[in-house]
Design goal:
Blueprint lengths: L12 E6 L3 H7 L4 H18 L5 E10 L7 H25 L1 E6 L7 H13 L6 E9 L1 H10 L9 H11 L11 E4 L18 E4 L9 H13 L14
Parallel strand pairs: 1-2, 1-5, 2-4, 3-4, 5-6
The chain binds farnesyl diphosphate.
């Protein structure tokens, strides 16, 4: 069932993914943690390629939380380099395939090389309309909400739409913030970890024990099948009972 009740947003189906389990995936194979991130990046490529065919219009990936800065320096540097090489190899492919890339999160703590690639990715792919791929780097939903609230001090309470706009200004992303339809978390944990807390107000939540490097297209299809079987009511009653 793919109907407008399931996906009310004019932006189309928005799937957000917390890509967890890279470290455990690697450790179980007797490999260092960073091997899990490397395998995770390969899985990002496959899932991004598959997403439009699965009816996904917006895909937001949690690549690096603001709390991830507290990881060992080697792992942080490895991840930053991985983001750089991902962009170096993917920007042109995304442009060709109509994938619009944008980034949410703080930018002032990112290194200049990554920042330049982010700017290039956003400008080079700005017209893509096959898929909107949003990558969250140095992202904290609570910080985004606090920053938006800070702009409101002394003013009248905003509407939800006005607040959503403010939230996204902080994320350096000018459009209104996008409501999430389906939030997937791999790796077995059942928590949101400061990801899109405002935007997930009515998201369907899907938790799987599959580690991110093993989360393949079949896994994505299963998550979507589950999503399409759910009934979304947004606090209302089912249409048939609304007499
Ligand atoms: C969480 O797993 C994963 C991360 C902090 C990094 C996510 C990064 C990638 C999937 C790779 C590249 C991404 C892009 C966009 C190119 P974890 O290491 O915390 O796993 P664990 O819970 O098993 O330790």
């Amino acid at each position: 069932m793919k109907n407008s009740q399931l996906i009310p947003s004019k932006n189309g189906l928005h799937v957000a993914i917390i890509m967890d389990g890279n470290g455990r995936w690697a450790t179980r194979q007797g490999k260092p943690r960073h091997a899990g991130h490397q395998a995770g990046a390969a899985q990002v490529r496959r899932i991004v390629e598959a997403a439009p065919k699965q009816g996904i219009s917006v895909l937001t990936l949690y690549a690096f939380s603001s709390d991830n800065w507290h990881r060992p320096k080697f792992e942080v540097n490895f991840l930053m380099n991985l983001f750089q090489s991902y962009l170096q190899s993917e920007i042109e492919k995304c442009a060709e395939k109509g994938v619009r890339l944008s980034f949410i999160g703080r930018r002032d703590r990112l290194n200049p090389v990554l920042l330049r690639l982010i700017d290039l990715a956003e400008s080079r792919t700005a017209w893509g309309n096959n898929l909107h791929l949003r990558i969250a780097i140095d992202y904290s939903a609570r910080d985004a909400i606090l920053a938006a609230a800070g702009k409101m001090v002394g003013q009248q309470s905003p509407t939800r739409e006005e607040f959503s706009k403010l939230l996204n200004e902080h994320l350096l992303n000018t459009e209104a913030s996008l409501e999430v339809d389906l939030l997937i978390r791999t790796g077995g944990e059942k928590r949101l970890s400061d990801f899109l807390l405002w935007e997930c107000a009515y998201a369907e939540l899907y938790f799987t024990g599959t580690m991110w490097p093993d989360f393949d297209i079949g896994s994505l299809k299963r998550a979507l099948q589950k999503f399409y079987r759910r009934q979304r009511r947004f606090g209302r009653v089912p249409l048939a009972e609304a007499i």
